[in-house]
Amino acid sequence: MEVKVGRLLSRILDNLARIFVVTGSRVVIGRGSRVAWRRIRTRHGYLKVGTDSMVNAAIDYDRPTGVVTIGSRAYLGAGHIVCHTEVTIGDDAIISWGVTIADHDSHSLDTRLRRDDVRLWRQGRKSWEGVAIAPVRIGNQVWIGFGAAILKGVTIGDGAVVGAMSVVTRDVPAQGLVVGNPARLVRILGESS
Predict the structure, then answer these.
(1) What is the spatial distance between Cα 51 and Cα 108, in angstroms, rounded to a whole number?
(2) Is residue 28 within 8 Å of 49, Cβ to Cβ?
């Protein structure tokens, strides 16, 4: 009896949270999806999650118009998404724990342009001058192993696999298996080795 009541209460709270947030128009959550709300700062960006997904990742927005889109039946472990402009994750993607996805470099490579970063943060501001920014796109049925980093401008093709602890700085082809730092293509899955 206690288990049924707990599940019922959990469903009610999930539905109330979904109704409340959706009416704010910054978040759309598909039926059957579960989101770790305490880890998401939605007042600063837009979040769309398809149906039957599980999102445990922290999501931080660096611009009020940033958009994170997560497909249906996707799983995101306790990792971190940092979005300035756009991060897209496809259907049936599996993203393990400790994965970081960022669509920007955070700081300029030019020391003159980043010298005031900390002072500006203390004032609640950020200068994006000289900071490289490019959307991240992760395809359908992608599997990303624990501790990997997916950096700005990367597109990972459908069915690709990213090995644990890999740092992905370049596009990954569909069905590609990449490993290492920086990540290198090992083979195309489904082909003879």
Answers:
(1) 38
(2) yes
Strand (E) or helix (H) holding 48:
strand 45-49
Dist. CA 51–CA 34, nearest whole Å: 9
How much is the pTM?
0.85
Q: CB-based burial of residue 64 (10 Å sphere; 0-12 exposed, 13-18 middle, 19+ buried)?
A: exposed
- Which residues are known catalytic residues? 107
Residue linked to tokens 């998401």: 40
Per-residue pLDDT of the chain (193 residues; tens, 9 = 90+): 555 655 665 555 555 444 444 434 588 999 999 998 877 765 678 999 999 999 999 999 998 899 999 999 999 999 999 999 999 999 999 999 999 999 999 999 999 999 999 999 899 888 999 999 999 999 999 999 999 999 999 999 999 999 999 999 999 999 999 999 999 999 999 876 5
